[in-house]
Each structure stands twice: as C-alpha cells, then as structure tokens.
Design brief:
The chain has 224 residues and is an alpha+beta fold. It has a domain at 147-224. 39% of the residues lie in helices and 17% in strands. It contains nine helices and six strands. It has a four-stranded mixed β-sheet with strand order 3-6-4-5, covered by helices on one side. It has a two-stranded antiparallel sheet with strand order 1-2. α3 packs across α5 (64-77), α5 (64-77) runs antiparallel to α6 (106-121) and α5 runs parallel beside α7 (125-137). It is elongated.
Amino acid sequence: MTYSCETNGCNEEGICRCGKIVDEHVVSVDLSLVTDEIYDQLYPRDNKSSKRENKLSEIFYGGEKVDKYCIYRILVQNKAYDTENWRVNISSGYYGDEIEDVTMDFEMYKKIDDQCQKLKEFTTLKDKIDYVLLLEYGHLLEDLKDVDYELIAIYKNHIDFKKLNQNHIKNVKMKDLNHYSYTNYILPRGIVRGDTDNYKIVDGYHRIIASDSKIPFLVFRVKK
C-alpha cells in the first residue's frame, strides 16, 4: 500500500482514505480449495434432486472423491497452479483501494470450465479416468484401453519402487511436493496395477512418492 495523506487531506479529516494497492499479485494457489469450489458448482447439494444424483454417483463410480480427483487433474494439466494465470482485481472503497476478488485468466477459465462440463457427462469410473489421462498425455496406453478400475486404499510399502526409474527417484526433491502431503492432499493419488506388496505405478508417481508411509491412501487399481 502507498499513502499520500497530507496531499489528500486525510490528516485533517482524521480518517485515511487514500491508500493505493501497488504490485498486486498472487503468491500461491491452493488447488485443493479451487477443486472444492469447482466441484460445489458442478454438483450442488442444495436440493433433493441433486442429493439423489450425488448418492447415485457414489454408487456407480465413486462419486465425490473420483470427480474431485479428475477436476484436480484438469487444473494441473492447465497449469492453474501457476500464479501468472491469476489476476488480482482492485476497486476503490471509502477508505482507499480494496481487493475486490481474485480470478483466473479468462482463457484458462473457459478451457477448464469446458473440460469439467465434459467430465460431468461421463457416468462410469473408466470413462472419467480415461478422459483425464487423454487430456494429460494425449493418448491411452495400449494395455489400459480395455481395462476397468477400482478405488482401493493401500500403503506406500505396497508399491514396488524397484520397477521405477531410480535416477528419477533420486532427482525428486520432497520439498517441492509439499502440496501433495497428507495434510494438503487427500484425494486418490494415482493409478496402479498388480497385487498387494507388488503394485506398479502407472500414473501419479509424484503424488504417491509424497504420501506418508504410515497412512493409507487411495489409488485406482487396474482390474484384470
């Protein structure tokens, strides 16, 4: 904030009304909160009809947890975490400048909205997972085209990390994955295939590597 109280007569009035906000910018983006906001708009829970639909979605494909996972993936794919894609809007108040709101870049917002609306049209777990994989990678792996998924809880030691690129593991800095810690991220963490104590990561390496080894987490398991 900058002030010019003497010039604007604030000292004589006894009330400062000249504050100007300068260098306004977003310093961080909480994608979990953004995900929750988008979900609440897509799937309102304020009437009997919407409550019934949400209950059915829970039965058919996993409901809220699955949809929020997909929304989060859409946000990441569109780089909604990048603070340069957000705008701080300023308005004039009785006591100087005020922050009116913080909004996404319009083109990014439109793209994310279109993709989330498309996501809502899918009614099976497979279709939703395939959709976000296609958005992120542009194609499906051949051995994922004819499979289905199930949502399960596993522990980190159930993953066979020997099957992963060890150089990639060494290069990961855990401090860069704080947004995926258990306190910040409670959604499913990725896709695995295999059996207990021998799961192979198909997608979601960073989210899984950032998990707490003592706390179970959700993943989508490829069904045989």
